[in-house]
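so im writing up the methods section and need the Membrane protein insertase YidC record in one place, dumping it here so i stop losing it
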Amino acid sequence: MKKRIPLLIGLILVTVLLAGCTEFNEPITSESEGFWNSYIVYPLSWLIIKIAELLGGSYGLSIIVVTILIRLLILPLMIKQTKSSKAMQAIQPEMQKLREKYSSKDQKTQQKLQQETMEMFQKHGVNPMAGCLPLFVQMPILIGFYHAISRTREIANHNFLWFDLGSPDPIYLLPVVAGITTFIQQKMMMAGQDMSANPTMATQMTMMLWLMPIMIVIFAINFPAALSLYWVVGNLFMIVQTYFIKGPDLKKTKEAQPAGGAKK
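--- predicted struct ---
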């Protein structure tokens, strides 16, 4: 049953997101019906419009401000997720020893492995679901903001800097910056993690490190520049956030490397 709970939560989340995606091309207004539109997409769209009015009609600046506000809102969740990830990483050597100790695939051995794994989690105060819950909470907010930008027709009629918000960036600068910042942000999140005990996971993470920025660039080239602006600002915020959360640990790792090399 414990294994099914994350699956059920994931299915519910996917259902909610797909419900929103079916109306992707429909303008969002106060008359839009449904939970997704009424309580997530329209309030975000309304916020973008109101802040643009306060900023002299600049929807570009409004997107930047609202993006930062959204990131600040989910910042506690991101900090919790990062701390949970670090805690799980710290006990990886012990988990590897347990897997080696109970390497047999028979049911009795696997039950013993699960039992001792849970005891180890309790011993170190680690909750394996703690890193997933923030992701489930923040995704509807971020996807809702994505929809709000795409479905707010007022945005398409304004320009910002050198581009029209409703059209793709004509010089492809924003898509390239979105891809580069995505790569940097992912690289910083991976820094300091020891994947030697799990080569398969290391390969998968390396693939995602390159695949995600490429996908972002391809999407951003074809999508309205307003969405590219949202990605760039969000990524820059995440880079700064990751630096302050993981910075001390990364600094210690770099300082320890020369000493380790000298000993060798």
